[in-house]
Amino acid sequence: MPKSILILGACGQIGTELTYTLRERYGNDQVIASDIREGDKDLMASGPFELLDATNYGALEDVVMHYEIDEVYLMAAMLSATAEKFPMRAWNLNMNSLFNVLNLAKDNKISKIFWPSSIAVFGPNTPKEQTAQNTIMEPSTVYGISKQTGERWCEYYFKKYGVDVRSVRYPGLISHKTLPGGGTTDYAVEIYHKALSDKEYTSFLGEDSKLPMMFMDDAIRATITIMESAPEKIKVRSSYNLAAMSFTPKEMAENIKKHIPDFKMSYAPDSRQQIADSWPSSIDDSVAQKDWGWKAEFDLDRTTQEMLDNLSK
Ligand SMILES: NC(=O)c1ccc[n+]([C@@H]2O[C@H](COP(=O)([O-])OP(=O)(O)OC[C@H]3O[C@@H](n4cnc5c(N)ncnc54)[C@H](O)[C@@H]3O)[C@@H](O)[C@H]2O)c1
């Protein structure tokens, strides 16, 4: 029997592309997309979809039983910038959805879980350059606290109940198919849209805010690679550091100018600057490289080329 996969939060920035890629790999009917809202037309037409609130255990269990689900990818969450506005809602969504999925696995109703963590688990006291897999972790945002707590619970469920949960700490993600959902690195996607439509962009982060970033194709490949790796290779059951590139808004603007020479960038940092200041500038992902063979393929030049080519179609 081919395995059945359920994606929670499938209509978001990552969920949309993950749904397409998993459907290509395992077959459209084997991958059930779900979200609290409908996604774009193409996604809805590409295979089965369920309107589902990931915080509702009963409804989630019904869908898992109905489709005889083996694996769950939990992509529903409230992201960093939005979570600062609604701390309790963020905590409830980010933690309860995770407990629901962990408990389904603990009760042997599903066999494997993917749950993403984030570079937001680190905080202002963490060494900023080449941040190590194991280091000081004192997150200062609601989102970061929820991700760090989530990591602890994932490791606990693995050790205590043998739950096969796998996780990576995504950096800021850059994609052209779906807009980002309220994070601190959203500027790195908006900038390409504005460069093409208006030839100018005002960044909500200052010109020297260097942050770790990744092109979506790399993020999806990392997600599927860790999920398909033999269980003994996954030695870290909290979450793996993952890296591809690091750059500042100013460096990004210079990179876009190679393609659009009259592109103009200005800067008006807002409340998201404080979140960015608490995060690492670059990440050491050598543990993921060693354990399950991770290696990023997209640098800034290649990302800019892909973004501008696809958005101008
Ligand atoms: N995008 C990034 O740069 C980034 C970086 C680090 C980590 N992550 C993590 O990856 C995951 C996916 O992020 P994303 O960027 O795709 O987020 P997103 O905001 O684009 O998408 C989240 C989706 O979850 C859905 N959702 C919200 N509440 C729900 C609920 N109660 N039940 C079911 N669905 C619900 C939303 O409708 C949305 O479609 C999150 O855990 C996020 O923290 C993302």
Topology, please?
Blueprint: E1 5-8, H1 13-26, E2 31-35, H2 41-45, E3 49-51, H3 57-66, E4 71-74, H4 80-85, H5 87-106, E5 112-114, E6 117-118, H6 142-161, E7 165-166, E8 168-170, E9 172-174, H7 187-197, E10 200-203, E11 211-215, H8 216-228, E12 240-241, E13 245-247, H9 249-257, E14 264-267, H10 272-277, H11 286-292, H12 300-311
Parallel strand pairs: 1-2, 1-4, 2-3, 4-5, 5-7, 6-8, 8-12, 9-11, 10-14
Antiparallel strand pairs: 11-13
Helix pairs in contact: 1-8, 5-6, 7-9
The structure holds nicotinamide-adenine-dinucleotide (NAD).
Residues 8-9, 11-15, 35-37, 53-55, 75-77, 79, 93, 116, 118, 170, 172-173, 180-183, 185 line the site of nicotinamide-adenine-dinucleotide (NAD).
What does this structure look like?
With 313 residues, the chain is an alpha/beta fold. The protein folds into two domains: 194 residues, NAD(P)-binding Rossmann-like Domain (Rossmann fold); 95 residues, UDP-galactose 4-epimerase, domain 1 (Alpha-Beta Complex), CATH 3.90.25. It is built from twelve helices and 14 strands. Strands 3-2-1-4-5-7 form a six-stranded parallel sheet, sandwiched between helices. Strand 2, helix 2 and strand 3 form a beta-alpha-beta unit. Helix 1 crosses helix 8, helix 5 packs parallel to helix 6 and helix 7 packs parallel to helix 9. The radius of gyration is 19 Å and the shape is globular. The structure holds nicotinamide-adenine-dinucleotide. Nicotinamide-adenine-dinucleotide binds next to helix 1 and strand 9.
